[in-house]
Amino acid sequence: MMKTYHHQYFSILTCLFSLLLMACTEHKTLDMNWEVETPDGWIPAKVPGTLMGTLTANGIEPEALTANDYARINKTQFEKSWKYRTTFQLPSLNEGEHAVLNFDGISYRANVWLNGNQIANKEQMYGAFRQFEFDVTQQIATDNKLEVEVFRAQPGEPNIGFADWNPRPADENMGIYREVRVKTCGNVALSHSAVRSRINTKTLNEAWLTIATELRNLSDKPIEGCVQGTADGQSFSYPVKLAPGEKKRFTSPAEIHISNPKLWWCHNMGKPELCDLHIEFAEDHKISDFEDVRFGIREIKSYLTDEGYRGFILNGKKILIRGAGWTDDIYLRDTPESNRLQLEYVRDMNMNTVRLEGFWGTSQNLYDLCDEMGLLILVGWSCHWEWADYLGSPCDELYGGILSKENIDLIAKSFEDQVMWLRYHPSIIGWFVGSDMLPKPELEKCYQQFLSQEDDRDYLISAKDQTSEISGPSGTKMAGPYEYVDPKYWYLPEAPGGAFGFNTETGIGAQLPVKESLQKMLGQQLFPIDDRWNIFCTASGADMNSLRQLNEVIHYRFGDAKDIDEYLRRADMLNYESTKAMFEGFRARWPHTTGIIQWMLNGSRPGIYWQLYDYYKQPNAAYYGVKKANAPVQLIYDYYTKTVYAVNETLEMAKAKAQMKLLKGGQTTEDSKEIEVAPGTVVKAFDIDTTDAAAAFLFLKLTDNNGDEIATNEYFIVTENDTYNWEKTSWVNTPITKYASYAMLDEMCSKSCKLSIKKDGAKYEVTVSNPTDKVAFMIRLTAKDEKGELVCPTYWSDNYLTLAPGESRTVSCKLPATPEDTAVSIQISE
To answer: What is the pLDDT of residue 523?
Structure first.
């Protein structure tokens, strides 16, 4: 039996090479039949996973992280070591065959025994981001017992990290949190294979591939052989010599030329084509080991604009980074299914990037899916090593907490392990080696030397506006805000977080889940808003740990809400318009802008801050604002210049009819024109006059030559401006000293819409009609099952709809496949 080392571990008996003899090889992922020892005996363990993941799966600890649940977890139980065990079978080894045991990630230290023989101890095997490989040829048998004793990270040890977006995991993510694998092979083991590519960026009709892999001579004799195989169907073979016991990182001495290559693009620019690499090491006409890897032919570069902002170029085309910050589940319980659902949401919102503050994932699945879906990834270290409160040891104000030689050596090796593990993924476009701060120069030199030899992507020195004495400016900014600002903020020249440069993390703070999710978190009685809500805010001791800011905005914008439905409608409106404007501002100001990352994408636990969909995977209002803002070709209203711009982020010329309708003071103004927008450009479409009215509604539409709709966009515009106290700007936000009133909104709007529904399998067409002479504002549509529960996932083409008087609009709703007799109710929410 044989399994590929990367991606799907499928089984085959032999590679049918008629002239070559195959070594008896087997590659296994040990993810089944694990147990962990508790005071009450052995229980089934989730591997990969953490102890809390196992304890929640067995009903020993609480699943939901409410205030009472979290308080009753006995954290002292994790101060002792815990033992895992599993069994597995392998065929008997023949002469010249070897067995290798790999651990992709343990938190934080471990002792390991195989068949009663200790092969590692906790003084050697430590570091959450180290990967460990053991030659266990002498200890392996046909029936094997593997035992692993794990120890949690202690204060000051750079562990897996969450920062202020949720409480610390009760077990500090202790456990075997990534895959464990065993393989048998010949004298030479092969690993970490990858393909680097260069593109003719002028013609895109040719590419050059470089093959890289890591070889380990497991024998006590010198070996001569060949690294050989095929890359995108092109054969290669290179002679290699290895000294006894030598471990060598191999790079092909010549490039492979590819004509008319299938290129990998992010999904909004083209198709994310993937190719196959089959690579072997052959000794004396016998295959010692092999790997099968999926790679993408693409060229990624970063650059600094004339203004000093960091940008990225994919296959010779500048791209505007538009994404959000990912976090894993607090107990690392994400599955391939939950990863796929969430990344489908990212693509559905028309974003092109996921930022991982950390090297997230319990396997390569998250990265594989981004490769497949055409989503860019920015990956790297988390800020929690840079602050004493999180790390648990003193931190330097410039370099954070990785200061000692021991920790510098550990993190340098950890970085190497992570990059080698992930480097074949075309979706990864850069490595963050700092977040809020810089790496110490000694550490940065290690990063720089390693990457110059083993990877062709740039590293980002910090997510903040920092300058390194070694590599120069970061070209990024992390100036906030992290709490509410109004939609005009993003366009204001005074706004530090506004639409210029590359804003690596920013957002409007509280982004409330839908009512149905809130009831799961807080119970049926949601109103009035009280201290129960605070546990679901952030874990920051400084700010953002209550709904104070949101409540203030609602009070001064609208007046106090009379019930939960009114409160949520107002919160949704604030969430929708400001988050939408954030992305729109960065698109409308391109190329003065190079990137925008919403903080955050998702929640690691049930929460009400920084999320576009909630812990139960239900999108909130901002989700649909982001989706509309990021439509590939769109009309965008600039609140500062009072101008409508057309933007195009596809690779094709956009030709369309642009239409605008402005409702103000009982009058209607309409205009239309034919426009052409070249790829990656912004074109002025309309000037908008909102004077002589306290508020107005703006409706925008793009249609093609056949009159079919390309995109719509809608705005509620007040002529009064918020007043900001710029001198009091902090890392959280800029205080608003006087709020523009939205009090007139309710009188201007109606909720009296009608629905017409057509069903075609799992897809519904829903026509929403506004028969009144008022604007139908923020109409939320829901799909519920027979029990009255929200169907998940539900993909609406548009939601939280705003319709002009007399307007009808048809949207689609795609649901998971269900039996034909399953009853689904499509309705307008309260």
So the answer is: 92
Return the closest-CA partner of residue 709 out of 633, 774, 650, 653: 633
466 and 438 Cβ atoms separated by less than 8 Å = yes
Instruction: State how beta strands 808-814 and 795-796 pair.
Output: antiparallel
Band (399; pLDDT cuts 50, 70, 90): very high
Distance between the two ends of the chain, CA-based, in angstroms? 58
Of 631, 321, 689, 660, give the one whose Cα is nearest residue 505: 321
Per-residue model confidence (pLDDT) at position 165 = 76
Rounded to an integer, what distance in angstroms lies between the CA atom of residue 447 and that of residue 14?
39
Give the bridge partners for 291, in sequence order.
279
pTM of the full predicted structure?
A: 0.95
Tokens in use for 96? 């010249």
The residues pairing with 251 across neighbouring beta strands, listed in sequence order, are 212
Phi/psi at 343 (5° precision)? -75, -30
* Torsion sign, CA atoms 436, 442, 445, 451: negative
Amino acid in position 358: G
Q: Which residues of 112-126 are buried (b: 16+ CB within 10 A; e: fewer)?
A: bbbeeeebbebeebb
CA angle 216, 220, 223 (to 5 degrees): 60
Tokens representing 825 are 């109710």
3-state secondary structure of 569: helix
Distance CA 406, CA 421 (A): 23
The answer to whether 417 touches 129, Cβ cutoff 8 Å, is yes
| Residues in Cβ contact with 45 at an 8 Å cutoff, skipping those fewer than 6 apart | 34, 35, 36, 54, 84
**DSSP symbols for 495-537:** -TTSSSEEEEEE--SB-PPPHHHHHHHH-S---S--GGGGGGS
φ/ψ of 284, rounded to 5, equals 55, 45
DSSP string, 709-777: EEEEEEEEEESSPPEE-GGG--SS---EEEPPP-TTHHHHEE---EEEEEEETTEEEEEEE--SSSEEE
Give the tens place of pLDDT for each residue, 63-113: 877 767 777 899 999 999 999 999 999 999 999 999 999 999 999 999 999
List, in sequence order, every residue forming a beta bridge with 337; answer none if it has no partner. Answer: none
Give the separation between CA 184 and CA 142, rounded to whole angstroms: 12
Give the tens place of pLDDT for each residue, 257-284: 999 999 999 999 999 999 999 999 999 9
> Which residue, among 576, 698, 590, 670, has the nearest Cα to 626 in the 3D structure?
576
Burial of residue 667 (CB within 10 Å: 0-12, 13-18, 19+) is exposed
DSSP-derived 3-state class of residue 66: coil
Q: CA 551 to CA 567: how far, in whole Å?
A: 9
| 353 neighbors 376 (Cβ within 8 angstroms) | yes
Burial status of residue 281 (CB atoms within 10 A of its CB: 0-12, 13-18, 19 or more): buried
Q: Is 60 exceeded by the pLDDT of residue 19?
A: no
Q: What is the 3-state secondary structure (H, E, C) of 142-176?
A: CEEEEEEEEECCCCCCCCCCCCCCCCCCCCCCCEC
Task: Measure CA 230 to chain center.
Answer: 32
Helix (H), strand (E) counts: the chain: 12, 51
Q: Which of 95, 143, 138 is nearest to 119 (CA)?
A: 138
Place of tokens 């805010």: 537
Partners of 21 in the β-ladder: 286
Q: What is the number of alpha carbons within 13 Å of residue 361 lying toward its C-beta?
A: 23
3-state secondary structure of 21: strand
| Cβ–Cβ < 8 Å for 98, 115 | no
Residues with Cβ within 8 Å of residue 95, at least 6 apart in sequence: none
pLDDT tens digits for range 168-201 = 899 999 999 999 999 999 999 999 999 999 999 9
